[in-house]
Every structure is written in structure tokens, then in C-alpha cells.
Design goal:
Blueprint lengths: L2 H21 L7 H13 L15 H22 L9 H6 L1 H24 L5 H11 L30 H16 L1 H12 L7 H33 L7 H4 L4 H15 L4 H15 L5 H28 L9 H24 L14 H9 L5 H13 L5 H33 L1
Helix pairs in contact: 1-2, 1-13, 2-13, 2-17, 3-7, 3-12, 3-13, 3-16, 5-6, 5-7, 5-14, 6-8, 6-16, 6-17, 7-12, 7-15, 8-9, 8-16, 9-11, 9-12, 11-12, 14-15, 14-17, 15-17, 16-17
């Protein structure tokens, strides 16, 4: 394909992406679904071959493009959340209870279920099955925008506080902000299992370093970066350093890059660091208008990167990405979207929960069902498979890519069609 044709194709696609949000406001169809379809149509043009945009052939490009998209999305999610989370206030932790339940119960159960189904239905070796489970378990922060909070709120004129009352959107947004990073230890376990057959040789290091140590390093450094840069941006004694007064929105990109870079250099999880840094930056001056400007900048960057990834995914789908899809892979994808995630999500949000009282904003029955159902799979799954492929050899890699591609496509279509009507109905009932 010539460079001129590439400019033309992506220019037309960008035009479509610009006009889509307004055009789809009252239609039960999401922008990601349309972009994926446009990518498939572009992929049918006689200018591609099976290897030109294959994620297996171009694993490095796939990994870093997906990684950048997820990082930008995590920064946006952290800035968008109005609800505070202070280490010193027990009430804050309780108001995040739905998040902790989804992370501690739903995600491990999803990983275990998909791993079992991949081993049983698809006949995958255990390392590949575990990689599939870890890659498909997290709710995606990129493609779940239709069911997430819209952005930073402003203080109420009557109370002077910010009140985030949509429990469904908050639960899905906060879950997506954290579970991508928390799936990383299980991707690492799959890599270690693929390289060392004897679990006793690596299980101790995995628990101590990959499961606990790297998460703590990422979280601590994220708090540090967010606090330091927040103090500089909002409260520096030097006027030239208070970028919030000048409304310089690129500070959000600075926080993202520094948090990720410092955490990765220190052997922590950069995904955790970026999300925590965004939460910390937001907490310095929670109601400041500057947060909305930073979030708007991040949102535009996220839209551009998402456009590119979805177009490339659609092109790949039309050029052989699903060539190695088996009936077992189809069954795993369908089971995850329609059974595993909804069931495990409902269990996490229902079992052992306290009964809501009058005025309590805890999730009610249909709201719990909505949160359980909208476990959208997306770009994070692409990153994990591409990352693992560069770290260890997986003989079933083509089948893994086909299954992941099918599951993402199914999730984009099903959740894209149902998001608008379900969220409107849940909102009206509340």
C-alpha cells in the first residue's frame, strides 16, 4: 500500500470517528463497533496481505500501540473519578466496596474459568490457557466509555462538594482503572510457566514479587509522582511553576509518562502507577477546573489511539486474524461474554453484601446485573497477548490471537448494542 493511499484511508476513517459520537447519540450502537466495521471494510481492499498487519508478525508494534492506548485511558479514568480514596478514611474504602469485590472475586474467577475452558474445550497447554484467561479477564478501560463516568465533576453550589452518585458507572470505571494492572501477575505466571516446567522453581518469587511486590511498588510510586506534580501544578510558591493557573493541560501527559517510567524502572507495574498517580493528582485540588481541561486533552489523545487500534484490528480481522479460530475458541468467547463474566460479577456484588438502607447508594438488583454484564473486553487483551508473545514461546499463539480477536469483536458488538438502552433504563430507575 502506498503512503498516499494510507493517508486517504486513515483520513476518511478519522472523519468518520469525528462525526460518530453525535450521530450515534440516540442509536443503540457504539462508536467502537462502527470503527471495527469500517476497519473490516478497509481490510477487504486489495492492498493488504495476510502478514501486512498481522499482530504475530508485528508483535512489537502491536504491543506498544496497545500499551500506549491503555496508559492514556488509565490516566483519563483516574482523572474522571470524582469519588475520593484516602488511605486514612475507612468510609472512602467502603464507598469503593463494589470495586474491591470485582477485583478480588470476579477477576480471579474469570481467569480461573477461562483457563479451565481453554485447557478443556480448546485443548491448550496450561501456559497458553492461563495466558488466555489473564488476557481476557480484565474489563477494558478503553472501549468501556459508554458505561463509564463522563469526566471530572465540579463542586455543588449548595454544598461545595463533588458528589458521584451513579454507582453503576463508578463501579465499572474504577474496576477498569485497576484490573488491567492486577491481571499482569497472571500473565507473568503464564510466561514463567512456559519457561519453567517445575512450579516450585518460580512460585515463591511469583507470589512475593510479581503478585505483591510489583503492585506495591507501582502504587507507592504512583502516589509519589501524583502528589509531587500536583503540589507543583496547584500550590507551588513560584507562579511560573503553577501550571494550573496557566491552564496547561499537557501536565496530564507529563504525569502519565513520569509515573509509568519511574514505576517500570523500579520494577513495578506501570499501569498501577499511572492510575494511582491520576487519582492522587485529582485529590490535590479535587474541584479545580484544570482537571476538566487535562481530562479533555487525554480524552482526545485516547480517541485518536483507539481509532488507530480499532481500524488495524478490523483490517486484521478481514485478513486472516480469525483463520485459526476453532469451535472451542468460539465457545470460550461466548461463554465469557454471556456466562462467566455476568455470573462471577453477580456473585461478587451479591454474596455477603449488606442490605441497603433508605438513602443508601449501594448497588441495587438491576444495577448489580448491569455491572456484572458490562465486562467489556478490548485493547488491554491485545497488549497482554502481544507482551507475553515477546517474553516466551507459546506454540498455540495463532489460536490465542484468533480467540482474543473473536472475543473482542463479540464484546464490542454485544455490549455496544446494549449499552445505551440498558444504561438509560438503569439511570431512569435510580
Amino acid at each position: 500500500m502506498t503512503a498516499d493511499l494510507a493517508y486517504l484511508i486513515f483520513g476518511v476513517a478519522l472523519l468518520i470517528a469525528v462525526v460518530l459520537p453525535a450521530a450515534l447519540e440516540r442509536v443503540a450502537l457504539s462508536a467502537p463497533a462502527v470503527l471495527l466495521a469500517v476497519g473490516c471494510l478497509i481490510g477487504l481492499l486489495p492492498v493488504w496481505d495476510a502478514e501486512s498487519l498481522s499482530p504475530i508478525v508485528h508483535a512489537d508494534v502491536t504491543e506498544h500501540l496497545a500499551e500506549a492506548t491503555v496508559l492514556v485511558s488509565l490516566m483519563g479514568v483516574g482523572l474522571a473519578l470524582d469519588r475520593p480514596l484516602s488511605l486514612r478514611r475507612l468510609g472512602d474504602w467502603r464507598r469503593w466496596s463494589a470495586t474491591w469485590r470485582l477485583l478480588a472475586i470476579t477477576m480471579p474467577l474469570c481467569i480461573a474459568a477461562v483457563t479451565l475452558l481453554g485447557w478443556w474445550w480448546m485443548g491448550l497447554a496450561l501456559p497458553a490457557a492461563l495466558l488466555l484467561g489473564a488476557a481476557l479477564a480484565p474489563t477494558d478501560p478503553v472501549l468501556a466509555s459508554d458505561v463509564q463516568v463522563e469526566g471530572p465533576g465540579q463542586p455543588s453550589e449548595s454544598t461545595g462538594t463533588i458528589d458521584e452518585t451513579d454507582e453503576v458507572r463508578f463501579a465499572l470505571t474504577s474496576e477498569a482503572g485497576l484490573n488491567d494492572a492486577l491481571a499482569f501477575p497472571f500473565v507473568s505466571a503464564a510466561i514463567l510457566l512456559a519457561g519453567q516446567a517445575v512450579a516450585s522453581e518460580w512460585i515463591g518469587a511469583w507470589v512475593g514479587f510479581y503478585l505483591v511486590g510489583k503492585i506495591l511498588i507501582g502504587a507507592v510510586l504512583g502516589v509519589a509522582v501524583g502528589w509531587v506534580l500536583g503540589r507543583i501544578a496547584f500550590r507551588s510558591s513560584k507562579e511560573s511553576m503553577r501550571v494550573a493557573d496557566r491552564r496547561q493541560p499537557l501536565m496530564a501527559v507529563v504525569v502519565l509518562l513520569l509515573a509509568y517510567g519511574v514505576a517500570e524502572v523500579a520494577q513495578g507495574y506501570g499501569f498501577v502507577a499511572v492510575f494511582v498517580a491520576a487519582l492522587t493528582l485529582r485529590s490535590v485540588e479535587r474541584g479545580h477546573e484544570y482537571h476538566r481541561q487535562m481530562h479533555a486533552t487525554i480524552e482526545r489523545l485516547e480517541q485518536l489511539l483507539t481509532l488507530i487500534v480499532l481500524l488495524l484490528l478490523g483490517i486484521s480481522l478481514a485478513n486472516g486474524l480469525l483463520a485459526d479460530l476453532t469451535p472451542g475458541g468460539v465457545a470460550v468467547g461466548v461463554a465469557l461474554v454471556f456466562v462467566v463474566r455476568p455470573l462471577t460479577g453477580w456473585i461478587a456484588l451479591t454474596v455477603g453484601r449488606r442490605r441497603p438502607t433508605s438513602g443508601d447508594r449501594a448497588l441495587r438488583g438491576r444495577e448489580r446485573l448491569a455491572v456484572a454484564f458490562f465486562g467489556i473486553r478490548g485493547i488491554g487483551s491485545i497488549f497482554y497477548v502481544a507482551y507475553a508473545a515477546g517474553e516466551a514461546g507459546f506454540a498455540e499463539l495463532p489460536e490465542l490471537w484468533s480467540t482474543v480477536g473473536f472475543t473482542i469483536t463479540l464484546s464490542v458488538i454485544v455490549h455496544g448494542i446494549t449499552a445505551t438502552p440498558i444504561m438509560r433504563r438503569v439511570g431512569a430507575q435510580r
